[in-house]
Each structure stands twice: as C-alpha cells, then as structure tokens.
Design goal:
Layout (H helix, E strand, L loop, with lengths): L3 E7 L4 E2 L2 H7 L2 H6 L8 E7 L2 E2 L5 H16 L10
Antiparallel strand pairs: 1-2, 1-3, 3-4
C-alpha cells in the first residue's frame, strides 16, 4: 500500500508545522506573526511513503499509485489517466 501525505511545512526550520514546531522548537516565531498562516516560510509539501516528491500534487500521486497497483495486477490493462 502506498502512503501519500500532504504536509504544511516551515522552510525556515525545515520541519512539518505541528505541535512540536510551534510549541517546542520555535515558540516565539509563530507568536510574532500571530500564527504560521501568513508566514513567508510556510509551504506545502507532498510525501509518498515518507519521501518528499518534488513537483507533484496529491492528485498526481494518487494517479501514479493507481497505475502502479493495476500494473502489478495485470500489465496488459490500459493506464488510468484521470479523465
């Protein structure tokens, strides 16, 4: 089974925006901006099985995972295109 996750990410601290980042690693950073939502260091990253995937959306990765699954079942079947 393929695990696809999307995470809010802080590029300043190179860490997922979660309880640990906000309350333990950098407690004064979110307070100065009233949270992470308007911070210029906030981005969104997509991970497939725990590895960051560059330039892919979550929807793209779901299509890739579906294709990989069907190729394992029957390589002769046509690929899923998302249409």
């Amino acid at each position: 089974m393929v695990l696809i996750e999307g995470k809010n990410w802080c590029t300043k601290h190179n860490h997922e925006i979660d309880y640990e980042l906000v309350h333990e690693i950098a407690p004064d950073c979110p307070e100065s901006r009233h949270g992470c939502a308007e911070c210029p260091y906030t981005t969104y990253k997509v991970f497939k099985d725990g590895v960051e995937v560059q330039g892919k959306s979550t929807q793209d990765l779901i299509g890739i995972a579906v294709n990989e699954f069907y190729e394992q079942q029957d390589p002769a079947k046509p690929k899923y295109t998302g249409d």
